[in-house]
Design goal:
Structural class: alpha/beta
Strand order of the largest sheet: 5-2-1-6-7-11-10
Helix content: 25-40%
Number of helices: 6
Order of helices and strands: EHEEEEEHHEHEEEEHH
CATH topology: Rossmann fold
Largest sheet: 7 strands, mixed
Number of domains: 1
Length: 188
Amino acid sequence: MKQVSVILADGFEEVEALTVVDLLRRARIYVDTVSITEEYTVHGSHGIHVQTEDLFEEVNFVESDMIVLPGGMPGTTNLDAHAGVRRVLRDFADEGKWIGAICAAPTVLSNMGLLKGKRATCYPSMEPQLTGAALTGAAVTVDGNIVTSRGVGTAIDFALKLIEVLMGKDKADEIAESIVYEAKHKGF
């Protein structure tokens, strides 16, 4: 069974995080929500508190096939400042394992040099911070082992693309149909 770790920091964007968790679980992908705080409850940027399964220090990320970073502020800043998150991202990049980041979170990857020479997308006001990346402006962009997306409005596209890269297009299409997803431009 595929395994994904969704990393949550105080100030995360709830829709971006929980859409990924929900749709991947519908696809029968094991999703572990991971708090980088010292508490299992993480506080979203819009006052929604989420109970995670694990604290960062409890997780053996070697078992994960993908790590996902939701955006939001100051969640993205908190992710970027966390040495353990940066270490795990570096390990995933070095091993060619999947990394997903949405909204402002691709800036964490950019700050580490992981988007240099890659195609990527992010929240429009964050684009100047993706130095060295070729900006696509697309709802979702995949380049190598990195999947990026623009924000809350593209959260379903993002989650479906994550399902596609892990389980195939048929599974992504099945989940899209099951949630009556009828986007004009299916970005996944």
